[in-house]
Amino acid sequence: MDFTIDKYIQFSDALKRHGAHARMYHDVDRHPAYALRIAETECAMGWFTTYYFRSLHFSSHAGIIRAVAALGHNIGYHYESLATCRGNIDAAYADFCRNLAELRRLAPVHTASAHGTPRSPWDSQEIWRHHDIHRLDIDYEPKLDTDFSRTIYLTDTGRRWDGYHVNVWDKVPGHQQQWEREGLIFHSTDDIICALTTPGHPVNRHSLLVNTHPQRWMPFGTAWIAEALTQRIKNTAKWILIQHKSLGAKKKN
Ligand SMILES: [Zn+2]
Predict the structure, then answer these.
(1) Which of 77, 82, 189, 238 is the most exposed place for a label (fewest CB within 10 A)?
(2) Does the pTM of the predicted model rise above 0.85?
(3) What is the radius of gyration, based on Cα positions, of the chain?
């Protein structure tokens, strides 16, 4: 069964063996308590990663953020400032700086990743066309600071590893097709584990940047079924949204 905590452990184990060429990070969109459970699991394995928290959780889940940091993981800011500020770049930059300062009261923060809101027309990474994120003592923004000609991006967005067709924001345009041609697109977690543990598989010639959402990885039960069903509905809605947008673009042309 996929997207369980047991599968997560198998997956992390295979990634650990990929050594310094595998980088894992977590976007904590919902349920920060699940992030703490994954953080504890990883810590027990001696596997340390990065957890990006949204500003809406800074005060309500400060204890969890501190606990994840105390386990030895990195803490990052999962920002959505341009959507929050409805497209106003300067207001979004001020919002980012304010929230970053608030998170830094809980843990050292030198990294930030953008949260994508499917229904929002704004991509928060647009802020960095007008301002320099690195002047804020941020060393790494995954989508901005990764060389995707050398690194494959894998995300569990959509509760599958090949969901870029139904993702609105979480994809790497320009590289996705190249990875598809090279056989570097995977559907299930087992597909990735199998590739990583097969000597000579092309995935082993690449670095990997892996993004997960901790609320997705839980023991099988009522919550697991609810998450699976909700995601199926969301994927259908996102697919309709993408069709609608491309139809709108065709009409404009
Ligand atoms: Zn997110």
Answers:
(1) 238
(2) yes
(3) 18
Three-state secondary-structure class, residue 53: strand
Whose CA is closest to 112, among 80, 135, 79, 160? 79
Maximum distance among all alpha carbons in the chain? Answer: 55
Task: Measure 25 CA to ligand 1 centroid, in angstroms.
Answer: 11
Give the Å distance between the CA of 192 and the centre of ligand 1.
22
Q: Tell how far the Cα of 125 is from the centroid of ligand 1, in angstroms.
A: 13
User: What is the C-alpha separation between 84 and 101, in angstroms, rounded?
Assistant: 17
- Per-residue confidence band for 211, with pLDDT thresholds at 50, 70 and 90: very high
Helix orientation angle between 5-17 and 32-45, rounded to the nearest 10 degrees:
50
Half-sphere exposure of 46 (CA within 13 A, CB side): 3
Task: Give the confidence band of 65 by pLDDT, cuts at 50, 70, 90.
Answer: very high
- Which domains does the chain carry? 5-252 (3.20.20)
Question: 153-171 pLDDT, tens per residue?
Answer: 999 988 889 887 666 566 7
Cα 230 vs. chain centroid, distance in angstroms?
18
Q: How do strand 109-114 and strand 74-79 relate by DSSP bridges?
A: parallel
